[in-house]
Design a protein that fits this description.
With 80 residues, the chain is mainly alpha-helical. Helix content is 69%, strand content 0%. The protein is built from 3 helices and no strands. It has helices at residues 5-22, 27-39, 54-77. α1 packs antiparallel against α2 and α2 (27-39) runs antiparallel to α3. The chain is elongated. The chain starts with a helix and ends with a helix.
Length: 80
């Protein structure tokens, strides 16, 4: 990675999503922010998925699972 710009965007959207989920209880908006954050890969973008360390894969997979959980939670709460 040439610049830390992606890391700042990733962290910003992640923190925004956490803020929206915890303090505003807006789970659909939190899922959107977390999903946008995934677009900004904070790790070396020139490294293929197979060559990445396991901890980097785990971070991205947990982030994706959290995004899916927020989406499911937001849709489920709208069902009431």
């Amino acid at each position: 990675m040439k610049s830390p710009f992606n890391r700042y965007l990733y962290a910003g959207f992640f923190l925004l999503g956490v803020y929206q989920a915890i303090f505003q209880s807006d789970y659909l908006q939190a899922a959107a922010s977390l999903g946008i954050g995934l677009a900004f890969d904070p790790f070396d973008t020139e490294q293929t998925w197979k060559d990445r360390p396991s901890w980097q894969k785990a971070v991205l997979i947990v982030h994706l699972a959290l995004t899916a959980a927020m989406l499911g939670f937001g849709i489920g709460l709208q069902d009431r």
